[in-house]
Amino acid sequence: MSALRCSVCSAPLHPDGRSLRCVRRHSFDLAKQGYVNLLRAGVDAGTADTSEMAAARADFLATGRYAPLVDVLARVVEASGEPEFVVDAGAGTGYYLAGVLDRVASAWGLALDVSAPALRRAAKAHPRIGAVVWNLWEPWPVADGVADVVLDVFAPRNTAEFHRVLRPGGLLAVATPGAGHLRELVTELGLLDIAGDKTDRIAESLGDHFEPVDVDTASHTAELDADEVRKLVLMGPNAHHLHRGGLGAKLDALTGATEVTFEFDVSVLRRKE
Ligand SMILES: C[S@@+](CC[C@H](N)C(=O)[O-])C[C@H]1O[C@@H](n2cnc3c(N)ncnc32)[C@H](O)[C@@H]1O
Ligand SMILES: [Zn+2]
């Protein structure tokens, strides 16, 4: 709570019954599901994950297939010293932030995401998570220099705000899909090419504000049953394109197991002064 700022006037926010309020009496309702919406304006349709995508994401992540990425992120947070506050930008259902907080008992976490259905889940994912609906492209409703670590897992990157909310010397971890991520499904199902920016491109784009510390890659393969493949596809951007190339029909027709490659790159950067 002490890290949050009013999205109208930037004053600190305080709990007041079922809302958060600043000294100028700007007020934001706490949803009964445990998150707060600080947005003042709407966001473009199609930006936020839908409740179907959030449900598919929660179900798929519960299989543990992406657990190696939690390990990498937790190691980054542990390496930051004795972290007290971790911000997850585009936290989705809170899976990664909750996994990190399980490992780092000293820290509290803030989940920022524009998707209310995803944040309902994030708010319940861990007792030390606070969840705020926000558009990452706007200045964040977060005080200067309060975060020990910012996580960004497959989410939009706002360099200026990463820098502003991090303390001096704080760490930024940017996770992106590696070159081989889900390559079997890209071939067999014709998925959108989900490969993220190359890590040198990420370091370059953040270079004015951050110096690169490390790039960690985690990769493994697993046999997925048809139901897991469906969830994996429906939790991401392909969910918006089920008619393209008959993707929906291909998913319906799936039976048996598919070998799938998972590959994650995590760029670790340190905030420059
Ligand atoms: C691919 S998902 C990743 C979610 C989570 N980090 C994970 O890996 O499970 C991208 C997330 O970014 C969120 N998102 C997209 N654009 C956003 C924006 N402008 N502001 C805030 N969140 C945004 C979506 O709602 C979604 O939860
Ligand atoms: Zn205010």
TrEMBL record:
<dbReference type="InterPro" id="IPR048647">
    <property type="entry name" value="RlmA_N"/>
</dbReference>
<dbReference type="InterPro" id="IPR029063">
    <property type="entry name" value="SAM-dependent_MTases_sf"/>
</dbReference>
<dbReference type="InterPro" id="IPR016718">
    <property type="entry name" value="rRNA_m1G-MeTrfase_A_prd"/>
</dbReference>
<dbReference type="Pfam" id="PF21302">
    <property type="entry name" value="Zn_ribbon_RlmA"/>
</dbReference>
<protein>
    <submittedName>
        <fullName>rRNA (Guanine-N1)-methyltransferase</fullName>
    </submittedName>
</protein>
<feature type="domain" description="23S rRNA (guanine(745)-N(1))-methyltransferase N-terminal">
    <location>
        <begin position="5"/>
        <end position="39"/>
    </location>
</feature>
<dbReference type="InterPro" id="IPR041698">
    <property type="entry name" value="Methyltransf_25"/>
</dbReference>
<dbReference type="Pfam" id="PF13649">
    <property type="entry name" value="Methyltransf_25"/>
</dbReference>
<feature type="domain" description="Methyltransferase">
    <location>
        <begin position="86"/>
        <end position="170"/>
    </location>
</feature>
